[in-house]
Amino acid sequence: MTARNDRVDEGPGADGSCAIALDEGLSAIGALHRFMESTGERLGWSPRTALQLTLACEELLTNIATYGYPDGGEPRILLTVAKVAGGARLVLEDNAAAFDPLAKADPDLTQDLDSRPIGGLGVYFVKRLMDELEYERLPSGNRLTMIKYE
Amino acid sequence: MELKSAVKDGVAVLSIEGRLDGQNASEAEAAFVRLAGEGHTRYVLDFSALQYISSAGLRVVLVAAKKTKALKGSLICAGMSEAVREVFEMSGLLGILETADTAAQATAALAAR
């Protein structure tokens, strides 16, 4: 387990995992992209997998930063990435308000231009892009564990 | 992300290059709003140099498409790479947006309207 207040990309941990603190929310999206690119190269992801995992993480980070702290507070958001047999495991932990993305209903994608709401796609993308998702509400916040197979 | 705008044959072309993500989507939206403020009704969003788009970027496209429709104009999304197209596909927006293979084709189609 990596310290929660690390500001920069970690080198591989003992188990080969690496982590990045995303406390700055939307302002950390650029850093997230660079981290996912270097991690993908190290773990041998295909360009398509790297893009899909980056997209899923950006969507979740955007949600946490936008809706997770309605009463203020200091965000602590940590992403840990590790290799597992045949794929990658991503764990996103935060100290935000409780939010179970698995409980969110999928959007209606068949609406025409006029009735199509703006937004509401992020969590749906995560569900589509990941092969396994597990949500836990911990005393410290939310933990979402995601597995993606190549 | 880099933004380039041009007007050709009465068609406003906004090229969005690089990554359109949650950190810069508002900048892209502002660029479209500026173009719309010039009174155009025909738009091409040129994605030929776009490598990545997230739902924040799709939001900009949807806002632009709704605004164009309200102006009784037309908007074509052109030049999507396979990676970008896949995200549009997943969102269901491909079914309600007009697309073209290249910005040149889109511009020619709109110039004829």
TrEMBL record, chain A:
Alphabetically ordered keywords of this record: ATP-binding, Kinase, Nucleotide-binding, Serine/threonine-protein kinase, Transferase
CDD domains, A to Z: HATPase_RsbW-like (cd16936)
GO MF entry, a single one: protein serine/threonine kinase activity
Record InterPro entries: Anti-sigma-factor_SerPK (IPR050267), HATPase_C_sf (IPR036890), HATPase_dom (IPR003594)
Organism domain of life: Bacteria
Keyword Nucleotide-binding appears in the UniProt entry: yes
Domain Histidine kinase/HSP90-like ATPase residue range list: 29-148
Family annotation (PANTHER family): ANTI-SIGMA-F FACTOR RSBW-RELATED, SLR1861 PROTEIN
Entry protein name: ATP-binding protein
TrEMBL record, chain B:
CDD domains for this protein: STAS_anti-anti-sigma_factors
A molecular-function term among this protein's GO annotations: anti-sigma factor antagonist activity
STAS domain location: 1-110
InterPro entries in UniProt: Anti-sigma_ant, STAS_dom, STAS_dom_sf
Pfam families (alphabetical): STAS (PF01740)
Protein name as it appears in the record: Anti-sigma factor antagonist
NCBIfam families: ant_ant_sig
Family recorded in the similarity comment: Belongs to the anti-sigma-factor antagonist family.
Organism: Cohnella rhizosphaerae
